[in-house]
Each structure stands twice: as C-alpha cells, then as structure tokens.
Amino acid sequence: MSLPFLNDFLSPYGLNVSEKKAEAFNRYMALLLVWSERMNLTAIREPRQIVIKHFFDSLTPALSPHFSPRGRLLDVGTGAGFPGVPLKIMFPSLELVLLDATKKRLMFLEAVIDALHLHDVELVHARAEDLAYDVRYREQFDQVTARAVASLPLLLEYTIPFVRIGGRAFLLKGPSVQTEFGDGQKIVSVLGAAFLSEERMFLPEEKAERRILWFSKQKMTPKRFPRKGLTKKGSSS
Ligand code: SAM
C-alpha cells in the first residue's frame, strides 16, 4: 500500500515525502495495526484516518518557521510514537528521545525502530516529572514536544525543564487549549520560558482544528520544578 495522500496533504506546504519515507510510513502503519490488536495503541484503524490523525497531525509543527529539522528532540508521553516518530521519518537528522511511562508502548516502539532502521533514537521508560531531575536530560534538548498527554499547565511543567536555554517547546493541542491557557500563562515565566506563538491548523478532510503552542526557553528552570505529585492534581487526557 502506498501513501500518496500523505504527500498530497504535505506538498502544498512544501514538504515532500520521498519513496523511501513513504515506505517507512507504510511499515509503521502496518506495525501499528498489527500491535493494536494485542494492546491499546490507537483506536484509529482505518489507514486514511491514521495518515490524517496520526501522521499528518504529528508533522504539523514542521510547517512552522519555529521548527528545526535537526538537533536533539524529546517527545514526552510519546505513546505509539506521536509526534516523535513521524518527525524522525521526515527529518532523519533529528536525534530523538522517546519518553513514556508505559513499558508496553516502548516495546512497540523498539519494534518500530528495528523495522524502520531508525538511527539516533533513544527510548526512555520513566515519568517526565522524575526524568526531569536527571542531569543527562534536564535542559539538554533543542526541542521538546508532547501531544495528548496532559492539560496545558501540567504539560508545561513536564516539558520546559528539559529544554536547553535558547531551545523550544511545541505542544500539540486541540481547541480546548483556550480554556487551559489562563492557568498555563502564569507558569510559563516561572519555569523560565516565554510564550512564542500559537499556530492554528486544520486537519485535511474532516477539518478538525489543531493548535500548536510554541515556547522558547529564556533561563534555567528553578530546581523545584517539576513539582512532586503533579499527576494527582492534573488531568492525563
Ligand atoms: N503522544 C501520543 C499520541 O499523541 O498519540 C500518546 C498519547 S497517550 C493519550 C498519553 C501517553 O502519555 C501515554 O502513553 C502515557 O503512558 C504517557 N504519559 C502520561 N503521563 C506521563 C508522564 N508523566 N511521563 C511520561 N509519560 C506519560
């Protein structure tokens, strides 16, 4: 099965999916479908919907001038690899770290990395709020991202500590981010970051709205962040 429509969706934005990359997306989809029969990876099983709601959606940050196609990128709460793996397929120079608190999902990602022959990808099994205190990861990333992991204030606390000074965090959210933004704004500067921009996108065909929030890291995050016991307070949706 080829994925010409991923190219159709991306080429108007100047992104081209080569044969080799389309093949990698195909293999990724095949693995996603097979493994989803055994474990909870995605509720979406229709190939075209996977292309739109997982692959295209994961690549939307790359349509922004703030995105860098190289350097170290951390995907917090990556699950079945979104948005980290599609970004890595499209931009092989990225040094990718995929972080998740669920071991089973990392086993799936190990199979994906093997099958797609992806290089410079590290899998980390940990909770973000614990890993952020590891000096090998804290303030070490050029870019940090997360999709569908938590509400905005919590997500900022999970991601900003990992961003190096001068680096970026980009968070993939839906329209509900508007209601989360009030609380989120307060904590941005406390964490040492500044709000850069909000980009609105619509997924092809069904026109579901997506918002990408960009933040830049200005100074070091105070040592007390992320706070302990965060998950008890925040949503994990
Ligand atoms: N980002 C993927 C996506 O968009 O399809 C997965 C989203 S899934 C709803 C949320 C994922 O975040 C789960 O795999 C869960 O294990 C992980 N997660 C939730 N809280 C986390 C935390 N504090 N640290 C690391 N991973 C976390």
Cα shape: globular
Residue windows where pLDDT falls under 50 for at least 5 positions: 233-237
Going by helix content, strand content and strand pairing, the class is alpha/beta
Named CATH topology of one domain: Rossmann fold
| Oligomer status | single chain
Bound molecules: S-adenosylmethionine
> Helix share of residues?
25-40%
In what range is the share of β-strand residues? 15-25%
Major sheet characteristics: 7 strands, mixed
Distance between the termini: 32 Å
Which CATH architecture of one domain would you pick? 3-Layer(aba) Sandwich
Keywords:
binds S-adenosylmethionine; alpha/beta; 23% strand; seven-stranded mixed sheet; 9 helices; 237 residues; Rossmann fold
Polypeptide structure, described:
S-adenosyl-L-methionine binds at residues 77, 82, 100-102, 128-129, 147. Belongs to the methyltransferase superfamily. RNA methyltransferase RsmG family. InterPro entries: rRNA_ssu_MeTfrase_G (IPR003682), SAM-dependent_MTases_sf (IPR029063). Its EC number is 2.1.1.-. This protein has a domain at 66-217: Vaccinia Virus protein VP39 (Rossmann fold, 3-Layer(aba) Sandwich). The longest helix is centred in the first third of the chain and has 18 residues, at 19-36. Helix 7 runs parallel beside helix 8. The chain has 237 residues and is an alpha/beta fold. Strands 3-2-1-4-5-7-6 form a 7-stranded mixed beta sheet, sandwiched between helices. It has 9 helices and 7 strands; from the N terminus they run H-H-H-E-H-E-H-E-H-E-H-E-H-E-E-H. The model is unreliable at 233-237 (pLDDT under 50). 38% of the residues lie in helices and 23% in strands. The chain binds S-adenosylmethionine (SAM). S-adenosylmethionine binds next to strand 2 and helix 6.
